Amino acid sequence: MLELFLAELRRSWIQLLRYSTEAIAGIVITTVVFYGLFLSARYIAGPNLQFGDRLDAVVIGYVLWTLALFIMSDVAGNLQREAQTGTLEQLFLSPYSPPRLFLTRALASLTIQLTLIACILGVISLLTGTRLSFPPAVLPAFATVLLGAYGLAFAMGSLSLLLKQVQQLLGIFQFALLFLLAVPSETWSGPMRLLGLLLPMAPGAGLMRDVMARGVPLKADNFGLALLNGAIYFALGLTLFHLAERETKRRGKLAGY
């Protein structure tokens, strides 16, 4: 397993070096879009606008949304590209099971993506003046978000296996992701509070906003709910991927495009 991870990590690093222009363009575009929204909001509200910790919370949601998009496109996009190049069947014939193979590839790619996300977060912080804290408690909260993100990514990957072309679905789904990660569902009350706990990645994103932007310590009960949320969506995504793999093989469409 370690050998597979190191091989995929080397593959991701080589791709980053060979297509570094695309990575730099992604950082620039993502940062410019957020900064444009920031300037627009400040202009509309006038010179007396005081964001407080709300700006920090919005930055966290936006950066998490960017990371989730990377993860989605990494799993579903990889499956689609492998199908286009005709190498998808070779991957499914490898000694490793397809879910393990693509999960290891996604985790190896995550190490590269986190570097890009750190660059985006650093530039946004410089432009907007946000001051986020990074206590150790942010790591378990971040892990719950990753679980939910990979669960949704494998769910989209199952559609990619069956349909081959999912660009339009990914384009529509990214707006739903923005709602899940940018809206402060942790501030909801009553029935809406229950809905916020059921939405994928929302409890973990709320924990990260509390810890990084508001200075609230990590509570065991809130972390347990976020972990349960992430674990359920991760298990659901892997289950859908396994079912899609079996159905694709049954139809004989694994090698087709």
UniProtKB/TrEMBL annotation:
Coiled coil: none
GO terms under cellular component: membrane
Keyword terms: Membrane, Transmembrane, Transmembrane helix
Subcellular location: Membrane
Parts of the chain that traverse the membrane: 21-45, 57-76, 106-127, 139-162, 169-188, 223-244
Origin superkingdom: Bacteria
InterPro entries: ABC2_TM, Nod_factor_ABC_transporter
Membrane topology type: Multi-pass membrane protein
Domain ABC-2 type transporter transmembrane positions: 58-238
Single Gene Ontology MF annotation: ABC-type transporter activity
Name this protein carries in UniProt: ABC transporter permease
Species whose genome carries this gene: Thermoleptolyngbya sichuanensis A183
